[in-house]
Write a structure and sequence with these properties.
253 residues; mainly alpha
Length: 253
């Protein structure tokens, strides 16, 4: 019961973090690995469990959805679904050793983005001299690549979306958060369908169910609290967890 309670809390924390700004993978994935699941299985279980939480968060913010740049919401969502599905196919078809070897580096990449994403975004925007639209085609290409990454690994993909939109389109992170939640749900939904059909996600049904319940509760609460919580404190906690998890993954070889 203690183990399931910890998984429930990890799911709730991950769902809330994803709703508020991102970083839920840094809670869910290590928690499942700690309970003995392989990195690949933990990855598919955690992201399958987080989908309902992401969907609930998007539903809470559904009236605040707004198009990203010159792209329509339907087209952007379709791109996210296709990219997420392709990333999932790569995860399921490539050898497990490939993911095991790549996981620390993917975590490190996501940690850098999580830690320095805003500064990098501002620096790139200044270097390019951009204060406006990079064009709908560039947005869709960037979204597709991020969706593939999200389907394969998923760590900090929501943060990467925010960085892309803020750098290329000048969108405010708070204003674009509802659309980020919707696209995050789209990316994870398509990958999860494949995971449930052709992966070991259902090999740990109790862990999957418990984490899903926690993620739904966390996603609902996080979406409502996104504008009220001290962002700096929350960001510090997530960054600390991300750095610690990345170091541990490298140490475990």
């Amino acid at each position: 019961m203690t183990e399931f309670l910890l998984v429930l809390l990890a799911g709730a924390a991950a769902g809330a973090l994803n709703a508020i700004g991102g970083g839920g993978t840094f809670v869910a994935l290590p928690a499942l690995v700690a309970f003995g699941l392989s990195p690949v299985t933990a990855n598919v279980v955690s992201r399958s469990a987080l989908v309902p939480g992401a969907a609930v968060s998007a539903w809470v913010c559904r009236r605040e959805l707004a198009p990203v740049g010159g792209t329509s919401t339907n087209v952007l969502t379709g791109i996210s679904v296709l990219g997420g599905g392709l990333g999932a196919v790569l995860l399921l078809t490539l050898p497990a050793t490939s993911f095991d070897a790549a996981a620390p580096w993917l975590l490190a990449f996501a940690t850098v983005v999580l830690t320095c994403g805003r500064r990098l975004s501002q620096a790139v925007g200044s270097a390019l001299g951009r204060s406006g639209d990079i064009g709908s085609r560039a947005v869709l290409i960037g979204q597709f690549l991020l969706a593939v990454y999200g389907g394969y690994f998923g760590g900090a993909v929501g943060i990467l979306m925010t960085a892309l939109w803020s750098t290329g389109l000048g969108l405010d992170a708070a204003a674009s958060n509802p659309m980020r939640l919707a696209q995050l749900a789209a990316v994870h939904l398509s990958s999860t369908v494949l995971f449930l059909i052709a992966s070991p996600a259902l090999s740990a049904p109790l862990l999957l169910t418990v984490m899903t319940v926690g993620a739904v509760a966390g996603g609902f609460a996080g979406a409502h609290l996104a504008r009220r919580l001290p962002a700096r404190l929350l960001r510090g906690v997530v960054v600390t967890l991300a750095v610690s998890t990345t170091v541990l993954y490298f140490l475990r070889g």
